[in-house]
């Protein structure tokens, strides 16, 4: 949960954390801009991916974090994202992609990430790709602002 914790160290917005660990997953409840987020950090390890679908019910927004510097695994990330987006429980969820590690010299640009993840083909889904650097906090608020705005329209 370092990524999300980093977001909330940087600002004075009211927030609170409820952290429960089980089966390697974490859940946090965070209030940001008058929206209460329940965030499930499900991790990306191969062994636990089949369990992801058990956490999709009632999901309104999906934050997908991709390592912008990992060109070898971006195709795998694209395949996993497309699998998730096929799930019926996520049919109405907005998609925020955090293109992380943008501080590294060989990081893929947003346009390349968008292309590699085939996000531009999502015709009936609201989506946004935000460049981020979790260790510096860059881009995190912009992404959460976008997500908050989209969810408040519902």
UniProtKB/TrEMBL annotation:
Residues where GTP binds: 44, 100-103
UniProt xrefs under SMART domains: ARF, SAR
Signal peptide span: none
GO molecular function: GTP binding; GTPase activity
PROSITE patterns xref list: ARF
Keywords tagged on the record: GTP-binding, Membrane, Nucleotide-binding, Transmembrane, Transmembrane helix
Pfam families associated with the record: Arf (PF00025)
Transmembrane feature ranges: 12-30
NCBIfam families: small_GTP
Record-linked PANTHER family: ADP RIBOSYLATION FACTOR-RELATED (PTHR11711)
Family: Belongs to the small GTPase superfamily. Arf family.
Name of the molecule in the record: ADP-ribosylation factor 4
Lineage summary: Eukaryota, Metazoa, Chordata, Craniata, Vertebrata
């Amino acid at each position: 949960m370092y990524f999300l914790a980093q977001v909330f160290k940087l600002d004075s917005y009211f927030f609170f954390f409820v952290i429960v660990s089980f089966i390697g997953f974490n859940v946090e409840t965070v209030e940001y801009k008058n929206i209460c987020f329940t965030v499930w950090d499900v991790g990306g390890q191969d062994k636990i991916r089949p369990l992801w679908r058990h956490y999709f019910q009632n999901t309104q927004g999906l934050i997908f974090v991709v390592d912008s510097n990992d060109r070898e695994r971006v195709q795998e990330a694209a395949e996993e994202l497309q699998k998730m987006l096929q799930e019926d429980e996520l049919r109405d969820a907005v998609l925020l992609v955090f293109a992380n590690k943008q501080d590294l010299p060989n990081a893929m640009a947003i346009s390349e990430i968008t292309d590699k993840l085939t996000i531009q083909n999502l015709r009936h889904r609201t989506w946004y790709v935000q460049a981020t650097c979790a260790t510096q906090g860059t881009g995190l608020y912009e992404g959460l602002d976008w997500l908050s705005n989209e969810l408040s329209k519902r």
